[in-house]
Write a structure and sequence with these properties.
Radius of gyration: 22 Å
Shape: globular
Strand content: 15-25%
Oligomer: single chain
CATH topology of the domain at 97-211: Uridine Diphospho-n-acetylenolpyruvylglucosamine Reductase, domain 3
Strand order of the largest sheet: 13-10-12-11-15-16-14
Structural class: alpha+beta
Helix content: 25-40%
């Protein structure tokens, strides 16, 4: 590939903003999906304003140079993997934030971490609910790009439910403002929602207006241990048939032991599965929900059920669930799944994953936002063992095939990225793929934004 003259771009942006140091570029090649096919960008740009993003995009558009948008680099689907010869625009330095207590909104740049927005909202007596397990290290821009979920989303919804407005830079450098601080808005097509979850293929998000809520009420926690994952998954259905808990999380035996190895908090190593549920309903309503959860666990053969109103104890079990992926990562390299099914199919999905693990002779740890049917099978393998790598990749595809067969999805919250796009047509069908391509073509006719993602 011929070398591209970057002098005009460098001159148009503040000094030092265009980075070509090979050592720095190497650090931006991959995200947390560790895509082995990652390339190397020709340059990295870390803008601080929308105008600087526009300058970079217009320069790339005039030369038909691909653009990769990257937030905090925590994508688990290869959504921000570098491409050879592309320009990478990292939003990490776009960090302005304003809380408006009158409208209960936060207007922020995409580089803010989820945890920082939460903390700022809390300081003003408000709450930003979406809480991915990686909330301490993932960015708001990435959350919006993938429509991220989290532990409390069974009751409070996912990122799109809190996005009121966006500023987006299109592939030709135009900047659009969509939505705003108003809580209700039916003017025109719902374009704001079009960009939420679009994984950077339609535009670059440079500002987000988020809806905030009053603080969450103190939660009570119920923990149940089960001999089998089947009993635990049936207990999930028993709970959700009656209430919508504030949290309902699942860990299998592999996960329990990995977390116990890391945290040493006294989890039952002999348990086949662990459920962590919470209710934040006030007063008698909360007591009634806790009673329903306990009854659901006990009637589905829980070996032990533990209840606490102590927020510190409750947070310890929440922390255990959040630690699941880092804990399992200590067992080997991971292929991270993100499949979801309608709740009645959850037991079939969990049992099916166990069968796939046995058939392929690979270890698969299963964690789940069980209350909304979103599971994370974690395939553990040795990348230096060619045979095991092949079996792990085969299991990866079979799990997505299973989710589709059960009427589910190949991704509940991580996005399709580059790693799952092969299976997207099987889920949505040719007509939806054609419509997706038409929308992409209308907004990015030269295919410059995040090439290789989704399509």
């Amino acid at each position: 590939m011929a070398e591209v003259d970057l002098s005009e771009l460098t001159a148009a942006l503040p000094g030092g903003m265009v980075v070509t140091d090979p050592d720095i570029l190497a650090g931006y090649r991959q995200d947390r999906a560790y895509d082995p096919d990652a390339g190397t960008a020709m340059a990295l740009i870390r803008p601080t304003t929308t105008e600087e993003v526009q300058t970079a995009v217009r320069w790339c558009a005039a030369r038909r140079i691909p653009i990769i948008t990257r937030g905090a680099g925590t994508s688990l689907s290869g959504g921000s993997t570098a491409v050879d010869g592309a320009v990478m625009i990292s939003t990490e330095k776009m960090r302005d934030l304003h809380i408006d207590t009158a409208t209960r909104t936060a207007t922020c740049r995409p580089g803010l971490l989820n945890a920082e927005v939460k903390a700022a909202a809390t300081a003003h007596g408000l709450w930003y609910p979406p809480d991915p397990s990686s909330f301490e290290i993932c960015s708001i821009g990435g959350n919006v790009a993938t429509n991220a979920g989290g532990l409390c989303c069974v009751k409070y919804g996912v990122t799109t439910d809190y996005v009121l407005g966006l500023e987006v830079v299109l592939a030709d450098g135009r900047a659009l403002r969509l939505g705003g601080r108003q809580l209700k808005d039916s003017a025109g097509l719902p374009l704001t929602k079009l960009f939420v979850g679009s994984e950077g293929v339609l535009g670059i998000i440079t500002e987000v207006t988020l809806r905030l809520l009053p603080p969450q009420a103190p939660a009570s926690t119920v923990v149940g241990t089960f001999s089998s994952v089947t009993d635990a998954s049936r207990a999930v259905l028993a709970v959700t048939a009656e209430i919508r808990p504030a949290m309902l999380e699942f860990m299998d035996s592999v996960t329990i032991n990995a977390v116990e190895d890391m945290l040493r908090m006294g989890l039952d190593r002999d348990a086949g599965a662990l459920l962590v549920a919470q209710s934040d309903a006030p007063g008698p309503a909360g007591a009634a929900e806790i009673s329903i959860i306990r009854r659901a666990f006990e009637s589905n053969n829980a070996d032990e059920v533990f209840t606490t109103d102590d927020p510190v104890e409750g947070e310890a079990f929440t922390a255990a669930r959040r630690a699941a992926i880092p804990a399992v990562e200590k067992l080997g390299s991971l292929l991270l799944e993100d499949v979801g099914v309608p709740l009645p199919s959850l037991p079939d999905l969990i049992d099916g994953v166990a069968a796939i693990a046995a058939d392929n002779r690979v270890m698969i740890s299963v964690i789940a936002h069980a209350g909304d049917g979103n599971t994370h099978p974690l395939i553990v393998f040795d990348p230096d063992d060619d045979d095991e790598s092949v079996r792990a990749q085969r299991a990866f595809g079979q799990i997505m095939d299973l989710a589709i067969e059960l009427g589910g999805t190949i991704t509940g919250e991580h996005g399709v990225g580059r790693l799952k796009k092969e299976w997207l047509p099987d889920q949505v069908g040719p007509d939806v793929m054609a419509l997706t391509a038409a929308i992409k073509g209308a907004l990015d006719p030269h295919g410059l934004l995040n090439p290789g993602v989704l399509l």
